[in-house]
Amino acid sequence: MLDTYFSIFSGKNKYLHYRWLKQDHIIKQDNIIYLQSIGRKVVAKTFDGDVEFYDKLSKVIDKLDDNKFCRVHKSFVINSIYVDVFKSDKVIMCDSAWIPISKSYKKSFREWLVKHNA
Length: 118
Description:
Layout: H1 2-9, E1 15-20, E2 23-28, E3 32-38, E4 41-46, E5 49-54, H2 57-61, E6 69-73, E7 76-79, E8 83-86, E9 90-93, E10 98-100, H3 103-116
Antiparallel strand pairs: 1-2, 3-4, 3-7, 4-5, 6-7, 8-9, 9-10
């Protein structure tokens, strides 16, 4: 039982914890392709389907592994391991989704790329 507990709760880099319908849930971070903010909800696009929960994207990104996840737009956080193509104004994900890179996040995204892909 302790092994299961430590595999779930050791470090912030393995699972994303969220609350939905008054119940606590977790998603393995490696299964998240990208996160999108839609209104007051955050939608996590995963290989198993979409997962929705109420939160702010700015709070969620603090819980994620900053070596893999980067904010590229006020409404999008991408998992870099699932990016197929980097372009100057967008990224194309492995599920063919086109995620825009906003002007306000372009500089920080480039710095993140240099830091994590050097």
